[in-house]
Amino acid sequence: MTHPAVRLVGLRETALDVDEVLRSLDDDASGGLVLFVGRVRDHDGGKGVTGLDYSAHPTALAKLAEVCDRVAEEHDVHGVAAVHRVGSLAIGDAAVVVATASAHRGTAFEASRVLIDTLKDEVPIWKHQRFGDGTEEWVGSP
After folding, report:
1. Gene3D superfamilies this protein is in (predicted)?
2. Burial class of 22 by CB neighbour count within 10 A (0 to 12, 13 to 18, 19+)
3. Which of 33, 97, 128, 139 has the most CB atoms in a 10 Å sphere around its CB?
4. What's the pLDDT score for residue 112?
5. Are 54 and 138 in contact (CB under 8 A)?
């Protein structure tokens, strides 16, 4: 069952739209909205990154929805949203956008932090990084 505060959950093969996330959480009762955008950086572990691919297990969307439900249940939020890219991404692309809205900023900050951290820990999405030296690595794979 989806908590009524969960407004947007998605895995996308196309560019993520921050405005879509903001629109999904628009309501007059929320005094604070905290948005986090995770982007592809040009380095990791002292090596230059040239690009990456995200792969998702078939259960990833359901698990992402479960994480969003849990955050909504455990925090006094009016809205929760989370979208993650899959496929090939370039340096600077948005890989994940999460946000929460609440009556107060402190609650929104806390809920957004829990949302991104839990997503990274529990949702089966794996990153395949390509490095400038020709090497590669999988991150988060089982």
Report:
1. Molybdopterin biosynthesis MoaE subunit
2. middle
3. 97
4. 98
5. no
Taking the CB of residue 56, how many other CB atoms lie within 10 A of it?
A: 18
Q: Output the CA torsion sign for 55, 58, 61, 64.
A: negative
Compute the distance between CA of residue 71 and CA of residue 8 in angstroms, rounded to an integer. 13
Contact, 56 vs 11, CB < 8 A? yes
* pLDDT at residue 139, rounded to an integer: 85
- Cα separation, 95 vs 90, in Å, equals 10
Q: What is the pLDDT of residue 140?
A: 75
pLDDT at 1 > cutoff 70: no
- Quote the radius of gyration of the chain (alpha carbons, Å): 16
Q: Is the pLDDT of residue 15 over 60?
A: yes
Per-residue DSSP letters for 77-109? EEEEEEEEE-EEE-TT-EEEEEEEEESSHHHHH
pLDDT tens per residue across span 55-76: 999 999 999 999 999 999 999 9
Helices (H), 4-134: 18-24, 60-74, 105-122
- Asked whether 127 and 140 are in contact (CB, 8 A), the reply is yes
